[in-house]
Amino acid sequence: MQAASETTAQLLHDNWLRVSEQVAEACHDSGRDPSSVRIVGVSKYVGPELAWQLRQAGCQVLGENRPQSLWEKCDYFNRQVPQAAATEWHLIGHLQRNKLKRTLPMIALLHSLDSLRLAQAISQEMQLTSGTLPVLLEVNITSDKSKTGMSRSELDELIGNLESLPGIAVRGLMAMSSMEGDEQSARHEFEQVQKLRDELQSECGDRLHLTELSMGMSGDYRQAIAAGATLVRIGSKLWQGLE
Fold first, then answer.
1. Which of 11, 65, 39 lies closest to 243 in space, CA to CA?
2. Are the beta carbons of 169 and 135 closer than 8 angstroms?
3. Collapsing DSSP states into helix, strand and coil, what is residue 19?
4. Strand, helix or coil at 180?
5. What CA–CA distance (Å, rounded) separates 156 from 167?
6. Sign (positive/negative) of CA torsion 136, 133, 211, 229?
7. How far apart are CA 197 and CA 191, in angstroms?
8. DSSP secondary-structure letter at 65?
9. Claim: this prediction has a pTM higher than 0.90
10. Per residue in 98-136, pLDDT tens?
């Protein structure tokens, strides 16, 4: 990956505009308002300097897979002038319980809540600050053993315990399509996630407001948008040309 420079800043600016236009086009093709879908720029591929250039190009929501990388980039952003107060950080990868204390204050949304045990640990941590963390429940709709995420029974168990977990606000679901699947299978899997969200919303009523669906990446965001995604996690398409 290239070092940050005026050349990379221009390239990222162009990439961001192109990806934004492509996502808007996918929304129009699905009969949706482009404002109903937000792009999470996945910055796990690069260091803080390039992530900062992507932010300066216009990407307001950045997603990290590893807490340590999140810490590094947040610290770097906070040292910039002007500071990036408007940057919204999401953690989209697995969160270990021993990294909660430092990570939780930095993120606006956790995409990957994948167990009751983690939910209990987050609740305990959030109660120390009287705060509330918005989260998405990561689901494995295909029962693919190579993917992370909860089964339906694990999901039901966690939701059944939410009243005893103050400090957690469930906002929706997150899922990935099968790596070896084609566009049609990806669309079907994303539709199954949307169906599951709708079922859960119906069952829970006013107890939950499941407005978010984090689905789709650089290779299958169009299928995800067609199936109702509100957050698409775009990485490689934003970093094209920097290899």
1. 11
2. yes
3. helix
4. coil
5. 19
6. negative
7. 10
8. S
9. yes
10. 999 999 999 999 999 999 999 999 999 999 999 999 999
